[in-house]
Amino acid sequence: MADIPLGCYTIKSHGAQIARLHMYDWIILVLLAVIDGLLNIIEPFHRFVGKDMMTDLRYPLQGNTVPFWAVPVIGIVLPCAIFGGIYFKKKNFYDLHHGILGSILYSVLITAVITDAIKDGVGRPRPDFFWRCFPDGKDLYDNVTTGVLCHGEKSVIKEGHKSFPSGHASSALVAVSRVDDYWHHWQDVFAGAIIGLTVASFCYLQFFPYPFDADGASPFYQFTSQ
Predict the structure, then answer these.
(1) What's the rounded Cα separation, in Å, for the pair 213 and 120?
(2) Is Ubl conjugation among this UniProt entry's keywords (predicted)?
C-alpha cells in the first residue's frame, strides 16, 4: 500500500491550495450547468405522432411518485451532507472536495447534459402524450398526414416530447416510479440508468482508485501531497 501522509487536511490549511489546483474544474462545472440550462430552454424535436400511434400513448397524465424537487435532494444534497459529516470526523479536505467535485457534481452535470441533449434530439413522446396533447379528450388529426394537431398547454406538450432517456433514472434510484407514473417507457428508464451508472463510475475513477483497491480509501491527489 502506498504511503499516505497522515494528519489533518482542513479547509483552512488546504482549502486555498486545492481551490487553485482545481479552478478549471469548477469553471467547467459552471459551463456544464449553463449548457444544461440552455438544453432545457430550447424546443425539443417534435417527432411525428400519428393517430394509429395513440394507442400506446394514452396512459393517464398524473403526478410524480417521486417529485422533481426530491431528485436533487437525493442525488446531491444528501450525499454532500454525508461527505460533510465524514469530513468533520476525519478532517480530510481532500476527501470532501474530490468527493463533491468528482463523485457528485461532475457526475450529475455530465449526465444531465448527455441526457437532456438526447431528449431534445430524439423527441420521443411520453406514454401520457395523448392527454398532454388533448387535455379535453377531444383528439384532432391532420386530414392528410394523420399527425396530431395538439391544442394543449405548450409547456406541457413540450415536456411530453422528452421521454427518452429518463433523467430521473440517470440521477437517482427512482426508475420504477417513472414507469408506474407513465412518464417514461421502460426503454427510457433502462437507457437513463445505463447513462447514469456509466458517467458516475467514470467521474469517480478520475479522482479515486477502485473502491476495493488497496489505496481505495483516499483520492489520487493525496498520495502525492505533503
Answers:
(1) 39
(2) no
